[in-house]
Amino acid sequence: MAIKVLGPETAAKLAAGEVVERPSSVVRELVDNALDAGAQTVSVLITNGGMDLIKVVDDGAGMDRADLRTCAERHATSKIEGIEDLSRISSLGFRGEALHSIAAVGRLRIRSRQIEQPGCEVEFDGLRLARETASGCPEGTQVEIRNLFHNTPVRLKFLKSPTAEAARVEQLMRRYVLGRPDVAFRLHVDGREGVRSPGTGDPLDAIAAVYGWRVAESLLKVDAAEAAGEVNGYLSPPSLTRSNRSDMHVYVNGRWVQSRPLLFALQEAYSSLLMVGRFPLCVLHLHVPPDHVDVNVHPAKSDVRFADERGVASLVGRTARNTLLRNSRADDAAATPLDITQFAFRPAAPMETASADLLRASQEHPNGSLDVAHVDSTTDAHEGRLPPLRIVGQLACTYIIAEGPHGMCLVDQHAAHERVLLERLQDGRGAAEESQALLEPVVVPLSPVQAERAEEWVRELASLGFAVETFGDQSLLLRSVPAGVPAERAPEILCALEEGLEGLGSAEERRRAMLATLACHSAIRAGQLLDTTEMRRLIQDLERTRVPTACAHGRPTLLEISRLDLEREFGRRGSR
Q: Does pTM surpass 0.85?
């Protein structure tokens, strides 16, 4: 086989594949350039997922006529001058391949004007400068790419639907919002506004623009500096989690990265604080000297290599862990002193016993009190089941206090109800025929990814007992919910159901995840006051389940404090 040197056009298209994989790759390169130019406002507009049009407008420094002529040449860049600069890169872009690669696979037009200078417009036909004219554009730069991959049709075959590609762009823009709170970002997708940030410079304003103020105000502030570097930002408390790592945002010197050592260090910081399969939400900024990090290890610039990887990972992990522990101690210190009025405590009469076995054992004892030894033979028949329980009261509107054959039991009312609802759903109870109609239909907005699979989504929801139908292109109309599901939580539950499906492929996996999520979000919540009848009914329902000791996500439903432990704590030395 003879070896040949490829022509410049073929070589350029091949090289473009490393930089321009899809529309979001184009947006990333152009926004990086805008930020490097000092822009304070960046607007992005895409149509048909970015395949018909991508337009990025910024108010940065702009380019003069000479720069516009050469900006699309291969390796043309203003970020570095020589090989020695690669050891101290501080800009987002530096490779000098972006505009050249984009011009190779799309129709590129650029307008730009520097302050107090005339504007200019250039248009490229492939890699050839086709037109150059004066322009009355505002200060800054406007870049348009039309018909992306029109001359590389094989690339189009590997793209997702326009809706899915638009969703990738939205996700990318949210990362910019979180990484640069000092810049105002706008994204318009097919005429609708997808992303908007205020650009105030306050990180919480940026976080609220992406996740809402309820989430932003619940986050924990992180701020630490050591020899290895400086880290600041925000972490979620253990009570706020996600089903995957997509909301773990780490920035190194302003660049969003997917660094395995840093993400692993963050997960380890939450070790023993989160359930398996749950992940924190975080926005962390790591600052290290530019010559201590190599950003030139991947064409997409999303990975980096540290000179002191262990030290940097240790700084991130230790800072996160200390923040979580400090917050926990602060919560303990701020807690109100123990006060009996905080508890819904109701002494239980014999008729309030949840288990007939325990009631019978209590009645058969000579003095009418519970004798642990007398009930032991009764619990043998309950191997692997709940012990018989007598309701005593409720603690902090969250835990049911009960007396068991071996001591005191605390039942997590939410976890217990979650288990009851899960098994009802698994058994088909709560299906469509048992749905409850809403007084008024509820409109539920959909993300672009959700909208893409709306018809499949409607079928899956119908199998759970939701009566829904598509309503326009970006929403659903909810008419009824499964029996037992609180109607006021329906929109919240639908969003939680969709989030829990991310990354799951098989129909069986998806159904299991949906049932667990539906049970969790429909269950009695912590902080909800229950009367004795409600507590007794919940314990009775829990006794009938197949796995009464764990909720749908594996958390325990109850804890037991033995009589022996109680006697020891009260100085009775374990004697009866």
A: no
